[in-house]
Amino acid sequence: MSPTAILLLHCPDRTGIISDITRFITENNGNIVYLDQYVDKQEGIFFMRIEWELAGFLIPKEKIAEYFQTLYGERLQMKFSLHFNDIKPRMAIFVSKMSHCLYDLLSRYESGELNVDIACIISNHEDLRFVADQFGIPFHVWSIEKDHSNKYEVEQAEIELLEKEKVDFIVLARYMQILSEKIIRAYPHNIINIHHSFLPAFVGARPYHQAYERGVKIVGATSHYVTEELDAGPIIEQDVTRISHKDTPESIAMKGRDLEKIVLSRAVKKHVECKILSYNNKTVIFG
Amino acid sequence: MSPTAILLLHCPDRTGIISDITRFITENNGNIVYLDQYVDKQEGIFFMRIEWELAGFLIPKEKIAEYFQTLYGERLQMKFSLHFNDIKPRMAIFVSKMSHCLYDLLSRYESGELNVDIACIISNHEDLRFVADQFGIPFHVWSIEKDHSNKYEVEQAEIELLEKEKVDFIVLARYMQILSEKIIRAYPHNIINIHHSFLPAFVGARPYHQAYERGVKIVGATSHYVTEELDAGPIIEQDVTRISHKDTPESIAMKGRDLEKIVLSRAVKKHVECKILSYNNKTVIFG
Amino acid sequence: MSPTAILLLHCPDRTGIISDITRFITENNGNIVYLDQYVDKQEGIFFMRIEWELAGFLIPKEKIAEYFQTLYGERLQMKFSLHFNDIKPRMAIFVSKMSHCLYDLLSRYESGELNVDIACIISNHEDLRFVADQFGIPFHVWSIEKDHSNKYEVEQAEIELLEKEKVDFIVLARYMQILSEKIIRAYPHNIINIHHSFLPAFVGARPYHQAYERGVKIVGATSHYVTEELDAGPIIEQDVTRISHKDTPESIAMKGRDLEKIVLSRAVKKHVECKILSYNNKTVIFG
Amino acid sequence: MSPTAILLLHCPDRTGIISDITRFITENNGNIVYLDQYVDKQEGIFFMRIEWELAGFLIPKEKIAEYFQTLYGERLQMKFSLHFNDIKPRMAIFVSKMSHCLYDLLSRYESGELNVDIACIISNHEDLRFVADQFGIPFHVWSIEKDHSNKYEVEQAEIELLEKEKVDFIVLARYMQILSEKIIRAYPHNIINIHHSFLPAFVGARPYHQAYERGVKIVGATSHYVTEELDAGPIIEQDVTRISHKDTPESIAMKGRDLEKIVLSRAVKKHVECKILSYNNKTVIFG
């Protein structure tokens, strides 16, 4: 894997953007290895993900963002982020009592499938410490009182830890607490949650019980970025599985767990590979 | 296909029901060709579908319901319906302007896949008369005023037609009007609708636009029995298809049409084959 | 829908192709409305579909191919085809006795979903003449003897008709005859077949029976371009559905028919929209 | 969970079997909590799974098999197996170098989802010892020479271990060796394999590479019982996922791993719950 730069950008649509940007890279000796773009015609916005090899590129790595901003960013009213494939993002995982999503993430991490560093696992319960221990990852517990009286100070402590650990993004792997604004605002489009329903159906608590009550024939799971409105952030990935009248809330939950872990891991992978652009509370997912 | 009787029943669960009923049939010389049962343990209710060949059955066809009621129905507090596979139910189809569900139903009917008689097609628009003409099926149009001022008399006329035509059940094949209580009550659990979303997500109007706005990654279609509450009746069948950020409301609608017609036709087939039992606003679907 | 030109091309990969081609279009005043490209890194081949509005484009429509060939085609060893969205391709449909795929295609055509002209329907049986009549499309029958003794002359007559009717591409909508080389060579990558299995499983005759015998839990359907090797051409689209031990060959075939018609129609749509590039017996499908 | 007995049986079909068997249980005071049956009409065979509570059942647990054989088994030419839900089967897992299926099984075991005892993990490589250690499960390694010269003695040692450990069934969790007859015959219908293709497509080695070469649009995974013919045993469960021309053999393998682990675990669960009956190289899977 040779070192590459990845540019994720969006701007008002106009003619010539693609040819401008590809020229910028090829004239500076960059070999484009990935290009995907999309135009939202209703909104008139151009989106692009472009990746090129850094070997031989004439602009030094640390100057690329500045040059790009000067030459194109301002003129084209562009918002962009620049990433390098040889810098691993640092991930924190929040869990409560259920282990399936955590095991799925950790076993992918262990086998090298997830190109991240795991800074720590944070929980409101001791239950999953043994899993963290199995994989040798620091595990921090802050219990939250039932009346939430200590929630503010817990989140304060968590934020301090996240900053100290230089965490880039957070994965809520069936974390059964609602995050407060403070932490959400500290990580915009960098907190990924798994909700165990096919959103927007069954927002909120106990979605499998809701599904059972309504008598649906298919249930789903949804991974999304966390925003201040509950279960309403930009959807990253969804998947579904069939159920029947024979299913109980318990058997639905069991089938659902297989969805949850796969759908969450897919979202984490897309995020880590810089293949997601968020806009207007939606996501553009590059292939 | 030899003549069979089909019994659909439910009653409070207790031991011995299966052995009672199978004995009733086998001791009277009936050869059971299908048996499926299900117990809802939460509610304590027993559900069954049993089908047997009439050739050699000792109880005359027209006496079976009476005997069964006397011998078991009362004692076991049973609700049951009795059907015969050689009596085709009579179906009416309601349509508006879109042809895909109508064509799908009619082409299955034409090829012998749907074991029904189609009594008539009813519409609030002239648009699809040519389809009815292609298949030689009576087409009746009653325009409904925008202010719904004539809705009462239109439905009155429709009910008279349905009665005259001895219609057993109604299929709303993308009929863009809400039926009033009168007609719903005349056909309890005998009106099948297709809603173009994965219910309970996106109830009501323009679900594909709602899906587009929310940025979901999967859309669905739902067939259900019509009850007085809009899009809230017992779900019969659902299916889904993937979409992406590249999809517009128009392309979502196009993909959705393929779901709608398949999901509606599956529901109609299950209904015609007496494989659906409704209970507590849910359905038990026998395999 | 404003008039557009569509360029489908592939060539050996090298740097600068995208910027060359997009510059060609934008410098000549074309507004790009679609661009998708893909590089097969194993083979070192670049693939592209690009579409732009013709209004205001400086090169006259009838000169575009020549200019593009002169300026880029030769230098880049490019193979390309040029299409215009306001010229409808002419389609011929071959059928035998089963109506489901034919009805599906015709009802989409009728509703305007398929942007084609249907030149004619060709069959080896009279059975589906009534469907052609329902839609007012010319229907031609040539019976083929069981010993295939007249197959050569039948295909000769068919080719004459196809030429006379200026047919651009052929759809085999469950046509139960194997085409000979002559007709296949006359329409390279322009004959679309639907095979009722998940290829490469169950090549050849009676795939649903084969699936039943093998005891698979999922069956599929595959649309592909026809090549001289049976059921081995480039795959365009596949889909699957679950079955169980309860399914008979007949019920599998019934479920399969729903797959076949959807999978065939999707392939026809992709073909008509010039979104398929064939290479090395595979397809690149643009989104 | 109260103690239950589970009877899995098949016999030639005739009238009265269901009523005979249900009477046997209810007359002896057993409360039936599960009944599912199926008739293969082509072969004339009746299949049944019936489960009842042992509390209050008049026949002692250890006598049930004998009584059932005497009263029904012989007369009805029945083959049956009797299981008790409070006796956990003992499972051995065979692995090579890939960890995803192993982690999936172990994390389900850890969370109590799989009602088994894991006797041991057996491998031909040291690579996954650390996973076994994480979960505290005995790990045994026997290297097999490239020329297979020691295969016989390795399998002999494995069989001795399996016997010593009283192993009931074996799961091949991406074990990259072909078992010899000896071990297959020792565990008829008790060795579950995961094959990383949608069988019968792509039998044998490197199925993802084969899928890539063929250009399929969907890949699958298949769990099946191991028989002496390679990849040809009774299929238990299959699932599929979409791929596109953009996928490389590596990305197909990555997507496939998610299928493999889910499809294998589902099969193991069905096996452990005594919901699989094998017959004629097919499986009947009870719901």
Quick overview:
By secondary structure, the first copy, chain A, is α/β, with parallel strands linked by helices.
Count of alpha/pi helices of chain A = 8
CATH topology title of the largest domain in chain A: Rossmann fold
The CATH architecture classification of the largest domain in chain A is: 3-Layer(aba) Sandwich
Order of helices and strands of chain A: EHEEHEEHEHEHEHEHEEHEE
What would the average pLDDT of chain A be, to the nearest integer?
A: 95
**Helicity range of the residues of chain A?**
25-40%
N-to-C CA distance of chain A: 19 Å
Task: Describe the largest sheet of chain A.
Answer: 7 strands, mixed
Q: So what's the overall shape of chain A?
A: globular
Q: Would you count the extended β strands of chain A for me?
A: 13
What is the oligomeric state here? homotetramer
Largest interface: A-B, 32 and 32 residues
**Fourth-level CATH superfamily of the largest domain in chain A:** Formyl transferase, N-terminal domain
Describe the protein:
Four copies of one chain form a homotetramer. Chain A is globular. Chain A folds into two domains: 4-84, 2-Layer Sandwich (Alpha-Beta Plaits), CATH 3.30.70.260; 90-285, Formyl transferase, N-terminal domain (Rossmann fold, 3-Layer(aba) Sandwich). With 287 residues, the first copy, chain A, is an alpha/beta fold. In chain A, α4 (129-135) links the parallel β6 and β7. In chain A, the strands form three sheets. In chain A, strands 7-6-5-8-9-10-11 form a seven-stranded mixed sheet. In chain A, strands 2-3-1-4 form a four-stranded antiparallel sheet, covered by helices on one side. The first copy, chain A, has helices spanning 17-27, 64-73, 100-110, 129-135, 151-164, 181-186, 207-214, 249-272; strands at 4-12, 31-40, 45-53, 79-84, 90-95, 117-123, 139-141, 169-172, 191-195, 218-225, 235-242, 276-279, 282-285. In chain A, α3 (100-110) packs parallel to α8 (249-272). Helix content of chain A is 32%, strand content 29%. Chain A has eight helices and 13 strands. Chains in contact: A-B, A-C, A-D, B-C, B-D, C-D. Chains A and B meet through β11 and β13 of A and β11 and β13 of B.
